[in-house]
Amino acid sequence: MTSKTVTVIAALFVTAAALSSCGNTIRGVGADTANAVDATQAAGQNVANAAE
Question: Is the predicted pLDDT of residue 43 greater than 90, yes or no?
Answer without folding.
Answer: yes
